[in-house]
Amino acid sequence: MARRLRIQWERALESALQERGRSPAELASALKSAPWKQALARKLRDAAAPPYRWLAGKLGMGKPGSVRAYLHAAEPDSAGRE
């Protein structure tokens, strides 16, 4: 089961990169907090629900907590919060 999920996440990542005209090499060279990486992480979470740890490692976004913070900060309902 876990292997099947990882395969699903990998396929979702490949597809999302292709949709955006990005390559896997760009994941390593771009900033951890690059807006396109944040959008990619959001799309992957919505589509395939990979864990933050997986997203952090695959997208080169730092620690899992950082990915979570990027995604929660970008949520529409968090705009008015302090």
Mean pLDDT: 91
Strand residue content = under 5%
Could you tell me the number of beta strands? Answer: 0
Shape: globular
DSSP helical segment count = 5
Uncertain spans, ≥5 residues at pLDDT below 50?
none
Radius of gyration: 13 Å
- Domain unit count: 1
Oligomer: single chain
What share of the residues lie within helices?
Answer: 55-70%
Q: How would you classify the helix and strand content by structural class?
A: mainly alpha
User: What is the first-to-last residue Cα distance?
Assistant: 40 Å
Could you state the order of secondary-structure elements as H and E? HHHHH
3D structure, described in words:
The protein is mainly α and about 80 residues long. It has one domain. It is built from five helices and no strands. It has helices at about 1-20, 25-30, 35-50, 50-60, 65-75. It is globular.
